[in-house]
Amino acid sequence: MHTTTSHTPESKKRSGEHILIKMTYIAKNVDLDSGIELTRALEYWRRYFEENDIVSALVISEGYFVQSFQGTRPAINTALEKILDEHSAIFPNIVKIEEIESRQWNGFLVKHLTSSAEDEEYALKSFSAGSDYNPYLMTSTQIESFLTAVFEDADSKKS
């Protein structure tokens, strides 16, 4: 039996496309050694997320990734499968998945934290469980607060 799927509002509801999901994960960068490789990977994912109406906030620091991305349930599930399939060497650890009312981010945001005093303030004083920055030691609440602080502060400085 052959059935065709129409893209009516009702068929989208059956796929969960009306439900927004926020997924946050942490990972250790053991795969992308050079700046060129990382830049290419980030551009690939920026385009992929844009094409699939997913917004994202990514912090890269000391070899770690902390990322939150938001979109429809089917889009987030497909993206997660793709990340696990294509980047298993980074050992992504899901921190939190939740339904949300609206997207928090706008576009594909990336912040590279450095050893500057300002960036260390984000990473060490407010959110890290130890003296060294390690998101694996942070609770999901600390990670969410960390991402919000990094990107809200960046937005407020632009104004």
Automatic annotation (TrEMBL):
Pfam families hit by this protein: BLUF
Taxonomic source organism: Psychrobacter glaciei
Name assigned to this protein: BLUF domain-containing protein
Location of the BLUF domain: 20-111
Gene3D superfamilies (alphabetical): 3.30.70.100
SUPFAM superfamilies reported for this sequence: Acylphosphatase/BLUF domain-like
Highest taxon, organism lineage: Bacteria
